[in-house]
Amino acid sequence: MRIALVEDDPAQLNLVKLWIEEAGHTCQCFENGRTFIRDISHESYDLVILDWVLPDLNGDKVVKWLRSELSWHIPVLFVTVRDEEDDIVHGLSCGADDYMVKPIKRRELLARINALVRRTTSDSVVNRLLEVNEFKFDPENKTVRRGSQEIQMTHKEFDLAYFLFRNIGRIISRGHMLESVWGKNSDLNTRTIDTHVSRIRNKLALSSENGWKLGAVYQHGYRLERREADNGA
């Protein structure tokens, strides 16, 4: 998963980042709320871990912004020293999905991360058969069928198509795609994404005539959407 960590305590930030990366996820760190908001205006993440008390914009206001401005639901986990019942109720009422009180424990944090993504994502399990409308993806064999027809794709084309179909309706940034498909240390440029998206669109016939739209979102990335088929009537 691609996780955003918003935390102004350097020691806490470095420790949680280490735990997250040791668990196999990628982690982007932010030391204040406004920097994070600017970033997520053109980036995408699978989860946000958010401190409440930040130097510029407190966590409850960040959550309210996410819920009012983003067109998709991103899971938010509050991690804070505020442990009063009223604080917890307020944090969840603002739109957070879960709440942990510091000091946090590694195994509990990772368990809550996994539980949150399972609960808030329609298909969060990687490497399993995926059927969406007329498409059937087999990640073990790297094959995709449209109805009875097998579509010939390279492994990277398959991986990117599979990733997009697991995230239907979400805006996914080019950086998110690069990390998820090519790896977090990839030095490829984002034109690679544009080329592969174009090939996927053509090979899978993701057009309005067939009830699909795989379109670019300005200054952000791409979104795959299911649309009513346009039969030219």
Keywords for this structure?
233 residues; alpha/beta; Rossmann fold; Arc Repressor Mutant, subunit A; 2 domains; five-stranded parallel sheet; elongated
Brief characterization of the structure:
This protein is α/β, with parallel strands linked by helices and 233 residues long.
Please tell me about this protein's structure.
- The structure is a single chain.
- This protein has helices at 10-22, 33-40, 59-69, 85-94, 106-120, 155-165, 174-182, 191-203; strands at residues 2-6, 26-30, 47-50, 76-80, 98-101, 130-132, 135-138, 143-146, 149-151, 171-173, 212-217, 221-226.
- It folds into two domains: 2-120, 3-Layer(aba) Sandwich (Rossmann fold), CATH 3.40.50; 130-226, Arc Repressor Mutant, subunit A.
- The strands form three sheets. Strands 2-1-3-4-5 form a five-stranded parallel β-sheet, with helices on both faces. Strands 6-7-8-9 form a four-stranded antiparallel β-sheet, covered by helices on one side.
- The longest helix is centred in the middle third of the chain and has 15 residues, at 106-120.
- The protein has eight helices and twelve strands.
The largest sheet is: 5 strands, parallel
Order of helices and strands: EHEHEHEHEHEEEEHEHHEE
* 3D shape: elongated
N-to-C CA distance? 42 Å
**CATH-defined topology of the largest domain:** Rossmann fold
Mean pLDDT: 89
Q: Could you give the order of strands across the largest sheet?
A: 2-1-3-4-5
Helix count, DSSP H or I runs of 4 or more residues: 8
Q: Portion of residues in helices?
A: 25-40%
